[in-house]
Specification:
The complex is a heterodimer of chains A (645) and B (110). Chain A has 22 helices and 8 strands. Chain A has 645 residues and is mainly alpha-helical. The chains are: A mainly alpha (645), B alpha+beta (110).
């Protein structure tokens, strides 16, 4: 490849050619010998990127990647601009799906040439005028759209970088030193998009082309308005803005699909999948296949749908709404895992800067926890405890409240973690809930137990934590199935322990139900939980019996596997230092006995049990979802639980 | 115990260790980095390297980008240059009996 040696060479002129010396030196070295700096080892040498090796060298230009020069000011047809805008949206969606910016958005070369196509700086005499390709389509329309695209990515990047989803695990933060227009106010980008619309109204192009371009510009503007919305201050604006974005998307989708540019068209050069070779990112990247335009519209629709879900949750002022809504999305394959940006936004919106849903103080969570689990307000709990306080020292609920808030925030946020991380988070929370249970229990030891309502509160208060703890334990075991973690011989054990955890939950729910007012919403939810869990337990027992055929390992081996798989369930007790289960579940030794009992049962038929479970789940329809703390989420839950059967 | 004395060109190569090298490759790139090592196949290791692209015109990048530790194989090397040293002078120093192959470049200077 020819190099222009008249340009200033990197490093300056003070270099001396030593090529001959290297050739001579290498020829006289012993075969297999190496020369290396002091402290530099072969191990270090192995970590070097090999230049010229396509899998490692991101800067390598392959023969097939040789392409004509990209000229940003080349005039384009309106359809070509539409195609570029649609493809850039596909790139944006692929970035949201976890790819890097250099694989996606930065492959659009106009993102690197915004200065070159600035209409204020373009010398008109240097532009070739073509009546079919007005240059304003590039300098005004395309530039505004690219500016809007980068600004949208900037807002998403800011949300993602808050640490609620994890860099390189959920998303890729690498910007390769390329600007996402961080310093440009969103108002400027919106103004430019408006200007593009104004230009299009008078541009010498056909009405169809004008509509197609205008709709795409308006869609970008609507998206930018949603991205930049500060939900903590203007959450009321979310719904109207989403309606505008939905309408814009609908209009774009209703138009005939944009044809691909003709072979040889300059529009095809607008995307360079090998852009990484020029960016400050020396990790070689896979060239990704962008989805079809139709896939992009679907993904964008899902993004808007997630925002609408968030809007609904923000306006439902109950803990159950978040718990039920999150659970349903975690359980059902009907709902796709939202993109990391949305998952981060849900977590931020739930709890940020010591405020819940941007408007309630953190103590609101404590109040809702007691109200929705125990049927008593936080104030009533506090008042009852205060009245019955028998210890000489003052009652201090503050630490327990702080701990409860911390656990609840983590518990709810975990619904929007990626599934493996959520499972790990719940494992930690099982222990946290136990700590809270112990703290609540030691608090109740200082109460005068004379009055019946005080005695009841003393009994039930610690069990509120246990109820949530058992729910977390159940989710951990069942999510293992979703993530294909269990080997065939582990499945019956997991089903059996699911049934055991549910047994404890059902016992607790019965206790709660007997103490809560029968006409209260809390009671309706407890009743729903009971019936749902009975069905789930039946399914677990049936599946345990069916899968028990795959038990081929010895008891010792299974016990060891169990201990390793369920390590989250064990703690070292104090002061004996004996390993014991956090939750009072039967020991593993009982498993085989139960299985043989199950198999020897003459009347046990897994088919009948499943049929019975189906009937129970169908019977859940009779529980009115309106009698819930979160009617919309309860209806969703019902659809998920009843529909598949 | 026998001490092997490196041939003169090998000693000269060792003298260049930790010097800044500029390597031009056949695909239109220049690598500017610290000479960290080489082998008998003449694969050159450069540490703290910046990559500059001078051709093709569409891909020219004279601002450079940091690529860290790289190994440039012989088949790509067009030219190797060393920064700010009078190599001929060093050759004389080596010839004068200063350097006995101690395994590292510095030994030639001491």
């Amino acid at each position: 490849m020819d190099i222009d040696y008249y340009v200033d060479l990197p490093g300056g002129d003070n270099f001396e050619d030593v090529t001959e010396l290297f050739v001579e030196g290498a020829s006289q070295m012993m075969p297999g010998s190496v020369i290396m700096s002091e402290g530099f080892t072969l191990m270090d040498a192995m970590s070097a990127f090999e230049i010229g090796e396509p899998r490692m060298d991101s800067g390598m230009i392959l023969e097939q990647a040789d392409r004509p020069t990209f000229e940003p000011l080349t005039p384009l047809l309106p359809q070509e601009i539409c195609w570029i805008l649609d493809t850039s949206l596909s790139c944006e969606m692929e970035w949201h799906n976890g790819n890097t910016l250099s694989q996606t958005v930065f492959t659009l070369l106009y993102t690197h040439h915004l200065g070159d196509i600035d209409p204020d700086l373009v010398m008109q005499d240097k532009v070739f005028e073509d009546p079919q390709r007005p240059i304003g389509l590039v300098t005004i329309v395309l530039r505004a759209a690219v500016l809007g695209l980068l600004k949208c990515c900037d807002f998403a990047w800011r949300e993602l970088s808050q640490g609620k989803v994890h860099d390189t695990e959920d998303w890729q933060s690498e910007k390769c030193d390329i600007s996402l227009m961080e310093g440009v106010p969103a108002e400027h980008a919106i103004w430019k998009l408006d200007e593009a619309c104004t230009y299009l109204r008078h541009a010498p192009i056909s009405i169809q082309d004008r509509d197609a371009l205008c709709d795409r510009i308006l869609l970008r503007k609507a998206l930018l308005e949603v991205y930049r919305l500060n939900l903590s201050e203007h959450k009321d604006m979310l719904r109207p803005l989403l309606v505008i974005a939905r309408n814009a998307l609908h209009r774009v989708r209703s138009l005939p699909p944009t044809p691909n540019p003709a072979p040889g068209s300059h529009a095809l050069l607008a995307f360079d999948p090998y852009i990484t070779r020029r960016l400050h990112n020396f990790i070689p990247m896979r060239i990704i296949d962008l989805g079809s335009t139709e896939t992009t519209w679907i993904q964008l629709g899902e993004l808007l749908q997630s925002w609408e879900d968030l809007d609904r949750l923000l306006n439902s002022h109950s803990l159950s709404a978040w718990e039920i809504g999150g659970s349903v999305r975690a359980w059902s394959t009907k709902y796709k895992l939202p993109v990391p940006f949305i998952r981060s936004l849900f977590q931020t919106s739930f709890f940020e800067r010591n405020h819940v849903l941007s408007q309630h103080p953190a103590l609101w969570l404590v109040d809702r926890f007691f109200l929705e689990t125990l049927g008593m307000s936080h104030h009533l709990v506090q008042y009852t405890l205060q009245r019955a306080w028998a210890s000489p020292g003052p009652m201090n609920l503050k630490e327990i409240e702080r701990n409860l808030i911390k656990i609840l925030v983590q518990h709810v946020r975990s619904f929007w973690f990626n599934p493996p991380r959520r499972r790990r988070c719940l494992m930690k929370l099982v222990l946290e809930w136990q700590t809270l249970h112990d703290a609540l229990q030691s608090l109740t030891f200082n109460l005068l137990g004379g009055e019946p309502h005080v005695a009841e509160l003393a009994l039930m208060l610690p069990k509120t934590a246990t109820l949530w703890q058992l729910s977390a334990a159940r989710e951990i075991i069942l999510s293992g199935f979703q993530q294909d973690l269990y080997a065939p011989h582990e499945r019956p054990i997991s089903y059996w322990y699911t049934a055991q955890v549910i047994e404890l939950q059902l016992t607790l729910l019965d206790e709660f139900k007997s103490r809560v007012r029968k006409d209260s919403i809390t009671f309706a939810e407890l009743r729903f939980q009971s019936e749902f869990l009975i069905a789930l337990q039946m399914l677990s027992v049936a599946l345990c019996a069916i899968t028990s055929k795959s038990l081929t390992l010895s008891s010792e081996r299974m016990a060891l596997n169990f201990r390793r798989r369920y390590k989250w369930l064990f703690v070292q007790s104090f002061p004996d230092n004996i390993e014991e289960m956090l939750i009072p579940l039967p020991p593993f030794e009982n498993f085989e006995r139960h299985i043989s009992e199950l198999k020897s049962g003459i009347h046990f038929s897994p088919r009948d049990v499943v049929q019975h479970a189906k009937q129970l789940l169908n019977g859940l329809c009779h529980i009115n979802p309106e009698e819930s703390w979160a009617p919309k989420e309860a209806r969703e839950r019902l659809e998920v639980l009843v529909c598949p059967l | 115990m026998t001490t092997t004395v490196d041939p003169k060109p090998v000693q000269e190569l060792k003298n260049l260790l930790r010097e800044t090298l500029r390597i031009t490759t056949s695909d239109g790139r220049i690598f500017l980095g610290t000479f960290a090592g080489t082998d008998s196949q003449l694969n050159v290791l450069l540490a703290n390297t910046d990559e500059f692209r001078l051709s093709p015109p569409d891909s020219v990048n004279l601002d450079g980008r940091y690529v860290g530790l790289v190994m440039i194989p012989r088949r790509l090397v067009v030219k190797i240059e060393v920064h700010g040293r009078n190599v001929s002078e060093n050759r004389m120093r080596v010839a004068g009996g200063g350097g006995i192959g101690g395994g590292v470049g510095e030994s030639a200077y001491v």
